[in-house]
Input
Amino acid sequence: MRLRLVLGDQLTRGISSLRDLESGDVVLMAEVAEEAGYVRHHKQKLALVFAAMRHFAQDLRAEGILVDYVRLNAPDNSQSLSGELARAVARHGARSVVVTEAAEWRVEQMMLGWQAALGVAVEIRADARFFCSRAEFATLKTARKTGRMEYFYREMRRRSGLLMRQDQPEGGQWNFDPENRKALPKGVRPPERLRFAPDAITREVMDLVAARFGDNFGDLESFGWAVTRTDAVAALADFIDHALPQFGDYQDAMKAGEDFLYHGLISPYLNCGLLQPREVCAAAEAAYLRGDVPINAAEGFIRQVLGWREFVRGIYWTEMPGYPATNHLGAARDLPAFYWTGQTKMRCMAECIGTTRRTAYAHHIQRLMVTGNFALLAGVAPAQIEDWYLAVYADAYDWVELPNVHGMVCHADGGILGSKPYAASGAYIDRMSDYCGGCTYDVKKKLGEGACPFNYLYWNFLIENEEKLARNPRMALPYRNLARLERGPIMAQAQAFLDGQQAWAAEQRRLDEGW
Ligand code: FAD
Ligand code: DLZ
Ligand code: SF4
Output
């Protein structure tokens, strides 16, 4: 018999490791502390992965497939993937192991050692769920060589045929992003979104998570994610019918108390395997062709999945393992403690961290332009802010989190992922949200008592990184504006603010480490 190993982010019936199953083959799935603990995941992420794994195993069994499922609390659980695989090979007398390639470098390193360690053949199959394979990306001129997503995306549009009329893009242009930057007008209420009440299996998992990971970040009781393929498909349909039509217009908008706006809420499902990138793009394209959604919505959404998601994966695999060690801007400050508590007078930060705590979710602009922007401006050490993002989101996996945070947010890769840092003052947040209205700070005030910290931290960021950034043509305008300002007071106020945060961060570290 062959042992088929399925990991917690490979919950797809068509996954390559389950191809050509023969009678007598056994599927191994294992909940292990090593995967649950490489970072202190949000409680909802743990509940999602374990509940989805258990439901997936149940569905396989319903098909008559033999599944050997090791629960986290099983008495002999070795608590590592390698350990559980070795035990299962012995238990079943397996002559070989079949597995689909790992999504991330850390687990791939493990996999590459399995054949020698186990003494049986280990076949590692490509993961065919992506539009662009790792090997293909490495050879694409439009990908790594230009370092820009747009040309890669156009090539993927041509190859996939998505939103194409012969060889021309639907709607006459490739990218409708300039139309997708509207703030949410007063009085517009986003639709209620489909959430899912936990069933008995999920409840049992939630009890396990509460008992073993009760101190991890995040609320658990509000859990409403889909944990089965059927429910994930229903969530996708709900998005396409009720939110996609406005997705484009309000893609960058933020509003206090509105956790989801018009976003897809599908990344946790795409990343653990319950949904496939091809089907979500096809569903958006079909809605456009039916005339149910405008082109700026369909194109904007498909670009995220076909363009950005594939592009960051390609960058991850071409740059690993050296990628996380780069630190182009030399950022070295500690992560402020309020990232974990949400206790800050900056309303934008409190709102985005609050959403994150409640739902294990925040949308792209909240991640990039609020919590990410603050970390960039404050010069937080990339590794510390990366750990935060990897921990707090239900969709967080190293292969997608790392390029987004290390490259897009921190500019730590020196421009591989974006030609300039996404640094912005309070004015951007004010334009795209209603946060500033209810904030203790004054977004219009640049300096002095009550001034919005994003304002002086923005100018201070330009000053601190002048040597690295001033020659970048895309930064010419901000540096021209800086030349008109008096630097001393900006630097003094920024320093005082950051020193205050550092003291808190140090105190928090002492508490965490039990000093
Ligand atoms: P929508 O806004 O509806 O977009 C549709 C889909 O497009 C998403 O589900 C996602 O699969 C894809 N997508 C959009 N933008 C990106 C992107 N930049 N990179 C990769 N895929 C993208 N996404 C993750 O899946 N996991 C992460 O750990 C993650 N970390 C991030 C960290 C930072 C600092 C930033 C700025 C972005 C991060 N993203 C991450 C990308 C993006 O924020 C999320 O994919 C998105 O918010 C998920 O919500 P949604 O399904 O409602 O997305
Ligand atoms: C994310 C995760 C968690 C929390 N737990 C498990 C687990 O117990 N068993 C498992 O097989 N997979 C888990 N996963 C997903 C893995 O971390 C994921 O397969 C790797 O990130 C892939 O590189
Ligand atoms: Fe955030 Fe500044 Fe607006 Fe307050 S005033 S919500 S700190 S951008």
Notes: The radius of gyration is 23 Å. Residues 7-9, 30-32, 35-36, 41, 46, 49, 102-104, 107, 397 surround DLZ (ligand 2) (CB under 6 Å). The chain is about 50% helix and 5% strand.
